[in-house]
Amino acid sequence: MSTHAVLIVATVALVTWLTRALPFAVFGRRRLPRIVVYLGRVLPPAIMAALVVYCLKGLDLTKFPFGLAEIASVALVALVHLWKKNALLSIFLGTACYMILIRTAFPVL
Amino acid sequence: MRKELRFALKTTIPVACGYIFLGTAFGILISNAGYGPVWALLSSVFVYAGSMQFVMVALLSSAAPLAAVAVTTFLVNARHIFYGLGFVERFRGMGAKLPYMVLSLTDETYSVLCSVSYPAGLSEDRCAFFISLFDQFYWILGSVLGAAAGQLIPFDMAGVDFAMTALFVVIFVDQWRQYPSHIPAVTGAGCAIASLLIFGPANFLPVALAAAVGILIALRGKLEEGA
User: Fold this and answer.
1) Cβ contact (<8 Å) for B166 and A95?
2) Which of B4, B8, B27, B98 is the most exposed place for a label (fewest CB within 10 A)?
3) What pLDDT does B150 receive?
4) Dihedral Cα B210, B211, B213, B216, nearest 10 deg
5) What confidence tens digit (pLDDT) does each residue in A65-88 have?
6) What separation in angstroms does the CA of A48 have from each of A54, B83, B107?
7) Residue B79: inside a domain, yes or no?
8) B220 in contact with A at a CB cutoff of 8 Å?
9) What is the pTM of this model?
10) Which domain holds residue B136?
11) Is residue B151 part of a domain?
12) What whole-number distance in Å separates Cα of residue B90 and Cα of residue B110?
């Protein structure tokens, strides 16, 4: 079990390095094709939106608590961030809100 | 050298708070899964990818097969390929520092390096290197603290991992504000939701990202005109 765990961590590390090194390995010594420059510019917001959905993928909207703790906390993070533009404050308040909600209004049964 | 160190320290204060907090959340999570401080340390030194390390705890708990681990890691971290594209030219002259700059380009380091303006008279390469180095140090510090002292925290920390979701929401909001067009963000959200509904929660992300790439390439004429 422990050997397999070491192999899991090593695999995650190697593949992470691969994703980070790939653009430098491929384009390190030549001019970037324009389509690649374009994708490098437009993909980050698309990816980040998909990652937010990824974090919320486990929600069951058909039965109590309907994902309300997550939805309310995400909304709080977004609103506080639009208002104060302070990443730490938004993350801290949203997480605190979530931790309180899952213990009070929407307990995980 | 001292000026560059001081500048990097000052520039990375927000990341320090975020990484120590998130790193602690990761440390608690991995130690609750039965893997102690040494595991937290090794993960944060060698993997050093915030969201993926959280996913890795789930992979460890379920003793996932290595092929599944490799595919999941690639899909979760595929966005780094596009982060690197923006820095291929910037890192070119950094010599011995280059490998570290490449391998430590997380979401947060990427956004700091994108937005930083270097004061005159300082070596930009050194500043960038120290920024990357400090960021990873905070992450390691947080994760080891969380794993080592997580058991000592007298109250129930359930839900602290929501900090990861909150981090993505924050970056999403920042990008929403900075980008001239909201089409990329809406495309990403739409593809992710559609793919989740069609394929279910286990493996929807790769299809969603591939679809988003396809749609954005198709919309290239329209988007480049607007930017």
Assistant:
1) yes
2) B98
3) 77
4) 180
5) 888 999 999 999 999 999 998 877
6) 10, 12, 10
7) yes
8) yes
9) 0.74
10) 2-156
11) yes
12) 12
The minimum CA-CA distance between A108 and chain B, rounded to whole Å, is 10
B144 vs B82, higher pLDDT? B144
What is the rounded distance in angstroms from the CA atom of residue B24 to the CA atom of residue A66?
Answer: 29
Contact criterion met (CB < 8 Å) for B74 and A19? yes
State residue A1's pLDDT score: 53
Q: With cut-offs at 50, 70 and 90, classify the pLDDT of residue B138.
A: very high
Q: Cβ-count burial of A33 within 10 angstroms (0-12 exposed, 13-18 middle, 19+ buried)?
A: exposed
| B189 within some domain | no
pLDDT at B54 over 80: yes
Work out the minimum CA distance from B60 to partner chain A, whole angstroms.
Answer: 6
Q: For the segment B161-210, what is each residue's pLDDT rounded down to a tens digit?
A: 787 788 889 888 988 988 889 999 999 999 999 999 998 887 787 788 88
Q: Residue B210 to residues A42, B75, B127, B128, B184: CA-CA distances in angstroms?
A: 14, 10, 35, 32, 13
The reply to whether residue B162 touches residue A78, judged by beta carbons under 8 angstroms, is no
What pLDDT, on the 0 to 100 scale, is given for residue B211? 92
Residues in chain B closer than 8 A to A78 (CB atoms): 169, 172-173
Q: Which residues of B touch A47 (CB under 8 A)?
A: 78-79, 82, 188, 209, 212
Q: CA-CA distance, B202 to B64, in Å (whole number)?
A: 13
Q: Is B210 contained in some domain?
A: no
- Say whether B60 and A32 touch across the interface (CB within 8 A): no
The structural domain count of chain B equals: 1
Q: Where residue B51 falls among pLDDT bands split at 50, 70, 90?
A: confident
Residue B75 token pair: 């899909």
